[in-house]
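URGENT: need a sanity check before tomorrow's submission.

F., can you look over the Glyoxylase I family protein record below? I want to be sure the sequence and structure line up before it goes out.
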Amino acid sequence: MKLNRVHHIAVIATDYERSKAFYLDVLGCTLLTEVYRAERDSWMGDLALNGEYLIELFSFPNPPARPSGPEATGLRHLAFEVDSVPDARTELVAKGVRCEELRVDPHTGRDMLFFFDPDGQPLELYAAA
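Structure tokens as predicted:
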């Protein structure tokens, strides 16, 4: 088997409209398609970043909270590459997004930081090479 690339990442939101606004308005994704699935009482939106399909955003009735501290088994976070982590952090903070302090990756020496979507899902900004 040869994997070509990551096709998409699925994110479940407790409040679909709030999370959709975050991913579109704060992170700059675009909405490709959106459908309400009545049989599951669930919204599903396909989001793109820079024209490339990336995130499948879902809502489901009463999803269990995601344990993230202490860290739980499974997908840890979604990371986005940016040109300047400090500048991106400033933009996020100005938009009211909860951010941790700037860090430096001890293995690469690049800037990085964690921030959180409306449900507390950990996201990361990582400096481009």
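My own read: The two ends are 29 Å apart (CA to CA). Residues 76-129 form a domain with the 2,3-Dihydroxybiphenyl 1,2-Dioxygenase; domain 1 fold (CATH 3.10.180.10). If you see anything odd, call me.
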